[in-house]
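Figure S4 source data
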Amino acid sequence: MKYLCLGYFDPQKMDALPQAEIDAVMGECQPHLDGLYGSGHLLVDAGLALEGKCLRRVAGKLRATDGPFIETKEMIGSAFIIEAQDMAEAVQIASLHPTTQVAAGEPLGWGIEIRPIHSFGMGEAKT
């Protein structure tokens, strides 16, 4: 089964750090990413920009609004897809990510949400 893992952070806490501290924290991430990449379970890994759009139908018309999209102090900063036998294995694999391994991320609100993916197909022709 495939799982979507969303990496969260607190942007106010990150923005409060000097760039040199952010660079140092991010520099601690690579060995953990190497472990995740080497696990053989990672299918996709992506960092997300802070800007974006939200599309909704409102009163029968399409509305595009600027993000962030939910009222929360946390922001999604990354997304990755893994393959695992079950949620317990997904937790074990996702725990290799720097979000859970780099101690300096804790005061910055780093965390991961893991959700099973239910595939609706990839647009392939049905025969």
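Figure S5 source data
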Amino acid sequence: MDDLLTAAQTRHHRSVTALVGTAWNDQSPAWERAAELPEETIRWCAAQGLFGAMIPEAYGGLGWSSVELGLLYEALGRVSASLASLINVHGMVARTLVRWGSDAQRETLLPDLASGRRIAAVCLTERDAGSDLSGISTTLDEGPDGFRLNGTKLYTTFGRRADLYLVLARGDGGQVCCLLERKSPGLEVAPMTGLLGLRAAGLATEVMRDCPIEAAAVIGRPGFAHTVLVPHLLEHGRHAVAWMAAGMLHRAFSACSAFVLDREVFGRNAVDHGQVQSLVTAMGVDLAAARGLCLTAARALDTADPVATRKVLMAKYLACQVLERHSAQAVQAMGAQGCLEENGVAAVYRDAKILNIIEGTPQLLERLLAVPLAREAAAGGPA
């Protein structure tokens, strides 16, 4: 990928890849077995400033560009999808406050989020509302003594660990987002277990029973969440997930390549067999294509390109699709060794399915992409 980056971006990519890899490259199997990310890892992320990578320097963050952030998520994805998800969901809340929070919200919360003194999570999904968030039933009602939040949220990444939640709810004037403190009366957080992937990502259910919410904790005006705030939040998440997928595919490709170059089958190295060559070629080419789309999307975000949202959707669509396809092929090519947790490919295989669902399934992204792509192509313009 270095040939696609500037010299400064190449140095940044090598730096964050070495930083994360040196610290945690061999730890992810233990995290998977324990179904938890250790506190020492979270403290390390805080010490390295990663929780503030997406926050402006004025609030104590690193103020990294979208390209720099993407390269960080790629490096994290090489080590652990759960570790990458921690920075991602925290960043989704932080970027929402940077863009749409009030002055008081930014000044009060962003320094703590940048330093990692507080960890944030996003509460969107409900039992009957996933890709279609118009079906949420959580409510934020205003009464004589202020707002009250009621409902149940599911699959909240790092919900077990978070100190602050950004919650999507229905208000009198439409959907609204509000900030909910972990210590809020009426909030019950329960771990979710038995998941296919992201086993160390601390997923949780939040049950909210008359949780008091101050007016100062509401973000934007009523109805603003559905049309502007949540799409912006999801755009950050989709951009991060696309890069995470590229990093995870790199991990699977590296492990699979080392195996087929070393393993002898029927008197020849496995890589000398035609079927294996087809698999390796497709994996390498698709990895390069995914990285290219991710980089295009990141640069579009950095330049406020009018079609940046579409480019992010395309990157997420391709990267997660090829990750799911090729992680399965990597396990197949490595046989029994591919099924061992210590090799890392099994975890990538499980996590790949999750990444292809979160922040928008392929079917949802096709619904969002098909018409604009077709119209542009019919008009003779570039995709």
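Residues 224-262 form the longest helix (39 residues). Strands lie at 120-123, 139-143, 146-156, 164-171, 174-181, 187-191, 204-213, 218-219, 264-265, 268-269.
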